[in-house]
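Lay summary. Proteins are chains of building blocks that fold into shapes, and those shapes determine what they do. In this project we predict the shape from the chain. Here is one chain we studied, written as its sequence of building blocks.
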Amino acid sequence: MDQPDRIHLRDHVALTEIGAFQTERGVTQRLRFNVTADLAAPVGGSGDQVDRILSYDVLTGAVAAGLADRRYDLLETLAERIAAEVLAHPAAARVEVSVEKLDRVPGALGVTIVRRAGEVAVADRAGSPGPVIVLRLDGARPDASNVGTGQGAVVIVPDAPGLPLPPGGDARRVALLALDQAAWTLAGPLGITVADSRTELDWAVAERRAVVWAPARLVADDPGLPADPLALALWLADKLQAARLDLTEAPGRAAAIPADFRIPVRRHGA
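And here is the predicted shape, written in a compact code that computers can read:
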């Protein structure tokens, strides 16, 4: 049987308090992590698209989530938690997790576990806060007062640039590309980055960062979704399970929110 494609994290060292002995309580020590994930599908079919592969951030994020979850007595329990985080992603078929203590003996002591999809409980992410989606329909720059505060993720959806679009070709595609250009124009003055893939958006949410969304890449193949900023903001809020949609409306441009839209919407006047 052919070996599956794999991604790995090697020699990742972090400080934490861990251990069952009294001498280990109240003392931080170094842990070394090695994580290897077998992929459910070969990387050759990814087409160089980041959303079609298992991101390396999944591995580093799994370690960070495990360390942030609680204080552990056993390395084995921490390793199980990390494995569950990785296998929560459908692109991961199998994971090998090694955790070693570096400060207990002159060498290293630790544990290695191997788990396959379906063998461990899927990691519960219910406690992770959703992002705030921000959209101004008056063409002005969104309020970025909470950008970089670390209080939560913010995803800004650009308004349509309001310029005449070139005739001919695929009008929807051209409109989406215009929104992408508006995203890059908006991100510079705000001092934040642009995200155009689901992987980058998920990373920003996990890291509680602020980004501007360039939508063309994610929605180009969904012809039923119009290249309309409000429609895109509603779609993204649903996909990311947003905590709230912040909507600033220009005079004479009231936004129609579907009655069945379940995410809270905070409306502002321009």
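What the prediction tells us: The longest helix spans residues 171-190.
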